[in-house]
Specification:
Helices cover 74% and strands 0% of the residues. By secondary structure, it is mostly helical. This is DUF2062 domain-containing protein.
Amino acid sequence: MKVMPWLNRKIVDPLKLILRRGAEPKQLAFSAALGITLGVFPICGVTVFLCGVAIALLGNRCHAPSVMLTNFIATPIELSLVIPFLRFGEALTGGSHLPLTSDALKKVLTGQASREVLLSILRALLGWFVAAPLILALLYVMFLPITKYLIYKFGSHPSSPKKQFITRTEVKLKARNT
């Protein structure tokens, strides 16, 4: 399978569709930051559930497709940040340094994890909980100018600054009222 067609189909095309639908830059920046922040949660396999809960709780304050798209994009980042979150959690608690061996991973995967391994998982979660607000804020500040530019470049906007842009829904509502 070629990488570029896959990237276009899974990431670029959905992103362009999101931009063309006219979301607000602040909402998109927040949603993208939220999707990545939740997407790097150090327990693999639960990030989609976390995003679903966040979308349900935040309602229209976030843009659900953007949260889910950036959550998908964050998957490789999630895998690379498990150990830094673990080490950060160990530093926060003063806990012992868990040696990361194939035997420890095997015990976790087979359900034979020792108390030490389970404590390390809790420390990784603590590391994420402490870092998540900072990650969210930094990503939002980074994404805001990017989303403004992308909406300007790819979004649906009027061809003339003097013309007011009217959506299809508004046209349908006006047609019904006349």
